[in-house]
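User: Fold both of these, please.

Assistant: Here is the first one.
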Amino acid sequence: MSLNEIKDKTSESMQKSIESLKKDFTTLRTGKVSTVILDNVMVDYYGTATSLNQVATVLATDATTITVSPWEKNLLKDIEKALQSANIGVNPNNDGENIKLFFPPMTVEQRKENVKKAKAMVEKAKIAIRNIRKDANNKIKNLEKEKDITEDESKKSHEDIQKLTDNFTAQSDSLLKSKEAELMKV
């Protein structure tokens, strides 16, 4: 593996850690309710476990309400049952046409708790980035040990990897800052 391949792979892996962090952030509820909270809800659709968004329209109608409109009216009861067993913190309200989920406004404590969760997610991402750096640095050391690269090339490559690490760590801090602001905004 060449130095350029090591750097490219390292950058790619660190970018994946950032993408994973962004995905983790979507699971945190902010002041405005998001339909992402229902992404893992599965409905019994003629004997097959099917994702809720495959059998119904799911919309956030305002900051605290999600409306689920089934494409087939006979699915209302199955969807209601799936939402109850999903344990999302609210009870579904079935009006015969749609199912509405009313989420109470978040308390300051809930917001602070979500900020803590966000910080833990960022720490996990930073650990992943540091592990990727360690792996790349080990590969560079091996190339130097095998005399495939010079000591100067090795030193320069270690510096490049550190710059990548600093860049991706700064990105994760920046993502946290904006997520924290979003979480605490009432």
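And the second sequence with its predicted structure:
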Amino acid sequence: MSITEWPEDERPRERLLSQGAAVLSDAELLAIFLRMGVKGKSAVDLGRELIATFGGLNRLFSATLDEFSAIHGMGPAKYTQLQAVFEMSRRALAEEMKEKSAFSSPNAVRDYLRLHLSGLHYEVFFALWLDAQNRLIVSEELFRGTLTQTSVYPREVVKKALWHNAAAVVLAHNHPSGVSEPSEADGALTRELKKALALIDVRVLDHFIVAGQAAPYSFAEKGVL
């Protein structure tokens, strides 16, 4: 049955207008984005198929063009639109962190890192460079590794801190395995980077581990920074 044949108060677009976007499921939000389904499937059915295939929105956003296009009815046009929406979300969160202290909006920090890192199939090491008021200067990927490890060089991290004239940093990396608990190597690396950056008066405010759909692990909140 086409969505236009549904009762008006059950249609995703009408529900969004009357109740707000937060009440919609992931599949319903995707249905609004897709606008129409394919033969035999409504846009909501297609949204459910995308969620089921990729296991969630983060994996969907991180899909390659080939992976996305393997779904019947999907192709380059929808893929580029989806990536544009994803990038606008990241930039909106970055603007929020640039306008005020990153730690006056901790949820924005977590959401921003999850948008960047949680859907990746490989490990990356990431930094949010902050000014003296803890406002975001720039975010950047520092190192990229395999599924199991990344080589992080403290000297290069220090050079980046000086280049950006940063006063503080929030470090982050992802665990593609989906397990957010830090390894002994993660703890040792954090201590090494904190020591190296202290020599140039750059504070390490936190180190997050992003893994799957779980809330990112925070070294600061766990008291192990």
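The mean pLDDT is 85.
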